[in-house]
Write a structure and sequence with these properties.
The protein is an all-alpha fold. It is built from 19 helices and two strands. A hairpin with a 2-residue loop joins strand 1 and strand 2. The chain is globular.
């Protein structure tokens, strides 16, 4: 008997329970969705008509999860524009470069020490480099830090990471998905990926007036269908030339963010982003065998420790380069320590390319631990600073001076956090 609808009902019920529990705890829903997905799936029991293995619905959940990736990246593209990064100034570019360089080098070096092959090293570096925009945004608003002086730097680093992600994911997807083994094949695959990105951005920016006219559609139904058609067509076309489908979605968001219809699209896309995004994290949990995580425990724990140290160092250096106080610089590093959707995208890319199976459980544990630790470390950042001040006496003078410098600054930057709301 076909129980597809019943299985989808069970899946959505579990997702709703996880979301309600996270809301009650005022905590990110990401770790709960991954955990509950890991708890069911292929190894779960079947109780009468209730099949928690999700056998019949697995392909549908997988597809809806892929759609979730598209909506997440598409929405981030809408929130970002190239002109915003240019206007942000030298401090954000410098801070973002410092953050990417430290975390990428740490991830690449760690994977090398583990003895992983080159492609696995590149994927692991991607897993450990990019922060979770969704978790970072939630932490900022939950802790009411939108008015903090470091928020501008945090938002700038997130924007910078988006740009880095677009180029890095295109390069890695070209290497992993194309199957190219010769130097010429690899270079041509990478060149094609970069040409796709740069060409689409160039054409999109030049076509903004045309897009403004074409998208002046009074009917919300027709408008939404046109946007969705463009989203899936462009993502699918990118995949055919070995560019990850998520990049096509991100690029379309970047192009449409320059149009007069960007706010209308954002308003209409949010429910789809939240719904399909939840299925994405839940579906990722379904793919993880909780009994097969043993080999990934120590690599994941080591990567977590390295990431926390690297984030603190990167946050302090980036913040001080922008003349932020020491406490604000520490807040910067701790706030963006969470990892989430981008790390999972990199792990799924490794799975699609047939790379080492350890990357999936490694990414799952790594994301799960940091999705929990990240908000906690951010919440306790002041205590952490006090602890560091006790351990390192030279920080005490900076801490007292920071207190005087940062008093009264919050009201002057109240609107900064609104850029990532929604």
């Amino acid at each position: 008997m076909d129980h597809l609808v019943l299985e989808m009902g069970l899946a959505l019920s579990l997702i709703a329970l996880a979301a309600a529990f996270s809301y009650w705890l005022r905590f990110s829903v990401v770790p709960f969705l991954i955990l509950i997905g890991m708890a069911v799936g292929p190894h779960a029991p079947k109780i009468g008509p209730l099949d928690f293995r999700f056998i019949q619905s697995a392909p549908l959940i997988e597809f809806m999860g892929r759609a979730g990736v598209l909506f997440l990246l598409f929405y981030l593209g809408l929130e970002f524009s190239v002109s915003r990064l240019i206007k942000a100034g030298r401090s954000i570019v410098l801070g973002g470069s410092i953050y990417i360089a430290i975390n990428f080098a740490a991830g690449l070096g760690y994977a090398y020490l583990l003895g992983w092959p080159l492609k696995e090293m590149l994927v692991a570096a991607g897993v450990t480099t990019i922060s979770s925009s969704a978790i970072v945004a939630k932490v900022i608003f939950d802790l009411r830090r939108a008015a903090n002086p470091e928020t501008e730097m945090i938002l700038g680093i997130i924007m910078f990471e988006d740009v880095f992600l677009a180029f890095y994911l295109s390069i890695v997807s070209g290497l992993v998905l194309s199957g190219a083994t010769s130097l010429g094949g690899i270079l041509s695959s990478v060149a094609l990926s970069l040409a796709f990105i740069l060409g689409l951005i160039f054409v999109g920016t030049k076509a903004t007036p045309l897009l403004n006219r074409v998208l002046r559609i009074p009917s919300n139904e027709v408008f939404l269908l046109v946007v969705f058609a463009c989203l899936f067509l462009l993502a699918g076309f990118g995949e055919t030339i070995h560019v990850a489908e998520a990049i096509g979605a991100l690029l379309l968001g970047l192009v449409l963010s320059e149009t007069e219809h960007s706010e209308r699209i954002e308003h209409m896309i949010v429910p789809f982003r939240d719904f399909f995004g939840a299925l994405f994290f839940f579906g990722f949990g379904l793919t993880i065998d909780p009994f097969g995580l043993g080999g990934a425990v120590w690599p994941a724990l080591g990567a977590v420790a390295l990431t926390i140290i690297g984030n603190v160092a990167a946050g302090v250096l980036a913040g001080r380069s922008a003349k932020l106080s020491m406490s604000a610089s520490l807040n910067t590093g701790l706030t963006i320590v969470s990892r989430g959707e981008f790390s999972i995208i990199m792990a799924n890319l490794a799975k699609a390319g047939g790379l080492a199976q350890v990357l999936q459980p490694f990414a799952a544990l790594y994301v799960l631990i940091l999705a929990v630790l990240g908000p906690l470390l951010t919440k306790e950042s002041e205590r952490i600073y006090d602890l560091l001040a006790k351990l390192f006496g030279w920080l005490k003078g900076l801490w007292r001076r920071d207190r005087r410098e940062t008093e009264g600054q919050g009201s002057r930057v109240e609107d900064r956090g609104s850029r990532i709301e929604g």
